[in-house]
Amino acid sequence: MLDGGEPGTVRPGGRTARVREAVLRAAEDALTEQGFTGLDLADIARRAGVGKTTVYRRWGTVTGLVTDLLEDMAEQSAPRTETGSLLGDLTANARLVQRTLTDPRQGPLFKALIAAATGDAKTAAALHRFYDIRVREWAPCVRQAVDRGEAPEGTDAHEVVRAVSAPLYYHLLISGGRLDEATADRAAEVAVTAARAGVYVRGGGKLRRV
């Protein structure tokens, strides 16, 4: 998440927090509607109902604003689900990613952010941090599965989590294929089967292939 939080959530914290919330939600709207290349700080200030000076002083550039947006999305992302089995946990992860990517607001937003990251190093770094946070959030599910004997010792938990969402992003960005719950469930099943077979066991600095 690989996955975003519920859009429009307002958290307490005084005027500064309310201004940040309004500006970030306005940035989401603009990204969803017109993509990264159409972003303009003055337009975002207008959408948020705050002064342009406030926006320019706090964020400085469009890249600075997008970086803050990604950090906010990581903070608001839903926590992992623990079902007691590796398949159950990874299916929950896959379905969360699937719901996010097919959401009328979140799907276009992630497309815009990924597109922006391909042409801007700072945005790319922020996007990498976002996904690193989400992978680290779900990695304990794999480590717990190893402790239960569901996957071999030495399994790279981060690689397993990445393997779940990778085919879902492929459908979103490349193939244009159907991205439904069945697709999500299949991605989880494939990742679990590979993990149990030792595909993601690290040995000698490389993932073991079987």
Structural summary, described in words:
The longest helix is centred in the middle third of the chain and has 28 residues, at about 120-150. A two-stranded antiparallel ribbon has the order 1-2. The protein has helices spanning about 15-35, 40-50, 50-60, 60-75, 85-100, 105-115, 120-150, 155-175, 180-195, and strands spanning about 200-205, 205. The two termini are about 25 Å apart. Residues about 5-10 have low confidence and may be disordered. It has about 210 residues and is mainly α. The chain is elongated, with a radius of gyration of 19 Å. The chain has 9 helices and 2 strands, in the order αααααααααββ. This is TetR family transcriptional regulator. Pfam families: TetR_C_11 (PF16859), TetR_N (PF00440). GO terms for molecular function: DNA-binding transcription factor activity; transcription cis-regulatory region binding. Keywords: DNA-binding, Transcription, Transcription regulation.
